[in-house]
Amino acid sequence: VQLQASGGGLVQAGGSLRLSCADSRRTFSNNAMGWFRQAPGKEREFVATISWNGGSTYYTDSVKGRFTISRDKARNTVYLQMNLLKPEDTAVYYCAAARGSTTTTTSRDYMYWGRGTLVTVSS
Fold it and tell me: Residue 7: left (phi > 0), alpha (psi -120 to 50), or beta?
């Protein structure tokens, strides 16, 4: 598995979690990366994206100010720090590698998807 997301779990509303996405084969160091999520009964949606060098980020409106995407090039890992979690953040979270190096919010621009990690936020 090239991309492995981890860090999900059960947390109370208002709490925090940090998701990690490890690129085990150092394949995507020059690619933009993204986080998406899929809640039960809903379509997958974009959450956050970061450029290849970490210099540019973009978030969906519902998580702005609460979530932070970052990447550690030395560890080939992308993170999603999630604060002030809400029950509506409950979903399976997926990390993905884009075809290009710049940020993108469109799922079809992502060429490789890792296995998801479940985040459950209780009220």
Answer: left
Place of tokens 């959450």: 47
Q: How many CB atoms lie within 10 A of CB 26?
A: 9
Task: Please provide the average confidence, as pLDDT, over all residues in the chain.
Answer: 95
Contact between residue 34 and residue 19 where contact means Cβ atoms under 8 Å apart:
no
Cβ neighbours of residue 62 under 8 Å, at least 6 residues apart?
88
Which region, left, alpha or beta, applies to residue 9 given φ > 0 means left and ψ of -120 to 50 means alpha? left
How many Cα atoms occupy the beta-carbon half-sphere of 4 within 13 Å? Answer: 7
Residue 1 has pLDDT above 70, yes or no: no
Mean pLDDT of 102-118: 95
CA distances 17 to 7, 56, 87, 98, 113, Å, are: 7, 22, 13, 24, 21
Q: Is a pLDDT exceeding 90 seen at residue 27?
A: no
Separation between Cα atoms, residue 51 and residue 100, nearest integer Å? 9
123 vs 53: CA distance, rounded Å = 37
